[in-house]
């Protein structure tokens, strides 16, 4: 019962707000923004679908022309190059300088 009263009050507040602002530019701007977001979402969805279709067509073309082995060999070369690059050692500084060695405190300057 309390939830119903609370929801009824919220709906009434929204209706009052719409009555106050419904004929203003605010509502028009709100509708424009909502439709723009929907349009952008639809465009993104279409682009993702186009990308997926293109990707499928490329792999189908590669398989039809038996380029799959060439592709796999190329990927293997890339993976080996990345692994080799990651395996190279990074030079390590033999001694790290402590902050005491690099920064003199005012007490040390006086001495």
Overview of this protein structure:
The protein has 5 helices and no strands. It has 111 residues and is an all-alpha fold. The mean pLDDT is 80.
Q: Give the count of helical stretches.
A: 5
Radius of gyration: 33 Å
Distance between the termini: 81 Å
What fraction of residues sit in β-strands? Answer: under 5%
- Assembly state: single chain
pLDDT averaged residue by residue? 80
Number of strands: 0
pLDDT < 50 runs, ≥5 residues: none
SS-based class: mainly alpha
Percent of residues in helices comes to over 70%
Structural descriptors:
111 residues, elongated
Present the secondary structure layout.
Layout: H1 2-21, H2 25-64, H3 68-87, H4 99-102, H5 106-110
Brief rundown of the structure:
The chain has five helices and no strands. With 111 residues, it is mainly alpha-helical.
């Amino acid at each position: 019962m309390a939830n119903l009263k609370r929801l009824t009050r919220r709906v009434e507040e929204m209706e009052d707000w719409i009555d106050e602002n419904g004929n203003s530019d605010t509502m028009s701007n709100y509708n424009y923004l909502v439709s723009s977001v929907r349009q952008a979402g639809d465009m993104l969805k279409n682009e993702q679908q186009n990308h997926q279709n293109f990707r499928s067509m490329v792999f189908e073309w590669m398989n039809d022309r038996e380029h799959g082995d060439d592709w796999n060999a190329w990927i293997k070369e890339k993976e080996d190059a990345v692994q080799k690059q990651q395996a190279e050692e990074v030079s390590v500084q033999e001694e790290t300088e402590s902050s005491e060695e690099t920064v003199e405190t005012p007490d040390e300057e006086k001495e």
